[in-house]
Design a protein that fits this description.
Structural class of chain B: alpha/beta
Distance between the termini of chain A: 55 Å
Oligomer: heterodimer
CATH architecture of chain B: Alpha-Beta Barrel
Helix content of chain A: 25-40%
CATH architecture of the largest domain in chain A: 2-Layer Sandwich
Distance between the termini of chain B: 48 Å
Shape of chain A: globular
Helix content of chain B: 10-25%
CATH topology of the largest domain in chain A: Sulfite Reductase Hemoprotein, domain 1
Number of domains of chain A: 4
CATH class of chain B: Alpha Beta
Order of helices and strands of chain B: EEEEHHEEHEHEHH
Number of strands of chain A: 21
Largest sheet of chain A: 6 strands, mixed
Largest sheet of chain B: 8 strands, mixed
Number of helices of chain B: 6
CATH superfamily of the largest domain in chain A: Sulfite Reductase Hemoprotein, domain 1
Amino acid sequence: MYRYDEFDHQMVQDRVEQFRDQVNRRISGEITEDAFKPLRLMNGVYLQLHAYMLRVAIPYGTLSGSQMRKLAHIAREYDRGYGHFTTRQNIQYNWPSLDRIPDLLNELAEVEMHAIQTSGNCIRNVTSDQYAGAIANEVEDPRIISEVIRQWSTFHPEFSFLPRKFKIAVTGHENDRAAIRFHDIGIVIKQNDQGEVGYEVHVGGGLGRTPFIAKKIGDFVPAEKLLAYLEAVMRVYNMLGRRDNSYKARIKILVHEIGEAEMRRLVEEEFTKIDARDVLSLPHAELNRIAAYFAPPAFEVLSAPFEIFEAAKASNSAFADWVENNVVEHRQEGYAIVNISLKPIGGIPGDATDVQMDALADMAANYSFDEIRVTHQQNLVLPHVRQEDLPALFVQLQETELATPNIGLISDQIACPGLDYCNLANARSIPIAQEISTRFEDLKQQSNIGDLSIKISGCINACGHHHIGNIGILGVDKKGTEFYQLSLGGSHDENAALGDITGPAFTSEQVVGAVENIVDSYLQLRTDDEPFIDTYRRVGMAPFKERLYANV
Amino acid sequence: MSKHLIRMENEQAVIVQDGWAFIDDDEPLTGDRAVISLTRLLESKEDLAQFKGQLGLVLRAGTKQGEDIRDIQSKLDNLAIIMIEFPVYRNGRGFSSARILRDELGFKGEIRAIGDVLFDQLLFMKRCGINAYEVETSLTLEKFNKATSAFSDGYQPAADSLRGILWNRS
């Protein structure tokens, strides 16, 4: 993991003091709430329905045990004993009081964490693959370049007041777990025939009310030129992006309006000018220094048979189910990647209590080289666990109610906070997710249904990524009543697709039944073990729609 | 609300007064310190060639603000000052205009931020090459110095003397 040096510490400490001064000016009345708003938003402080909310950055989703322990402490001391992990690999606290936030940030700084640029119209926290450094066949650990981007984008003097927020995601693997095609900039790390590494740059993806899949404009940007290239994209956007209408201000609209070819031309022109000055060419020594922090941990050389593991699988069906659904093959023989579901049946997607976070910190220290990851599906990962330790780990997860064996299954849903917390929402999201999860509680039934993602947004802003759910659910308001529009066929991975709307929306009483109806159709339509998305792509909307609206 | 002008002179912030006059596009070009629009500068009519006073340019806020900034390259030597309007805190287009002027076009004269020039943006403006700031009088020199020294370093190079932490380490 990356560790701060004196420069990083100083920048974060300076920021804490700057924000403390801003809060003091607000509390003393020197500045109005209007003037304070952009300042707090630069630091992840939102005013929600009931209280201020603080979003803490977890750069590219990587955490140490001691950082997780600090998050638990903050949940206990500054909040109501829980935190909410988000689709951007961050954590949100829903109940901190404004006057204590500077102290909270000071505590975060002690463990090399911050809330910098977790909101506002600036370059947000960089997100990446939760399996980075643990999965086989990675071109390069995406956290290396993500950390470079984190530093370059932090307090960028030119790009802190962009037309709109700006999100960058990186993947180093051909299986895209970071949904890079739905980001303002998505980066895929590639290797050419000569074995050199380069960066493929996609621009203009996004969800919200006008979803777009990003366009590839940079084919193979070398590492030392990447920051110059990114700065070129940012400058084109900052100069040409629309500021007259906030719904049309994202870079996806600019790319859509001027076209992919023109965007590529403008960026290349700008890149040539920036590159000519040569001040942004990244030194190899610095790249290597950062890369060294992400070197693989000291794995033991292990080989089969893994008797403790095999015996537990044979004797304990709950363990076997959990392994089947939550455990993924590791690059190193004898190790495993462990997904920890934050989607207990009937629970709130992404929530974790202080007790659970403390327990996870211990488990990371004991079993996973002190590393934890946050996923954009709002789950957690212990990336490097010895297979022989899995049975013991499973027991500890069960004791803390973190052993739900549903990764990738229908109850592993993404949901935004919705009308229960958010002042933008039109409808509730969490209760719908809870009801769906309860309706499909039976693990046998879930396993039979197989891979199926449900994503729920409480409004058109699409924080719950409904466009890219295999089944998407969007809350809409019709004359003061909550309705839910369904879509089918969305997908966030390397075969990115936006879902198609089924037809008229459903009431909150009908919507879970409608989801069940869709699942039943799928079970009748599929061949063998064809996953939902493949069936949908094969048969299209018609047979689903016919059954869905048969009795309406 | 009354405003005053803070300018960086030899690395020191000082309060200064000057007499630049904004000349509308349809007004005759007179006086000895005239600030004109980008449109008028690019049209480059007869009166501009005959004007004997000092010339300044203002980039007014608007949907196209600064978009054709690069077209003024051949006229830069005639400009003593370029003013960039920041109409509202969230419009940050002027930061890019300033950097293009400094980094790419090599403009050495004064770049002045006018409009909604806020305490918490001063450091970013300074890093982007802006060296004069029209601010409310309540924003004193002391506050200005505090705002522009909030961070002792920066991660990235810009239009100031910092190389960027990423570059300083090696």
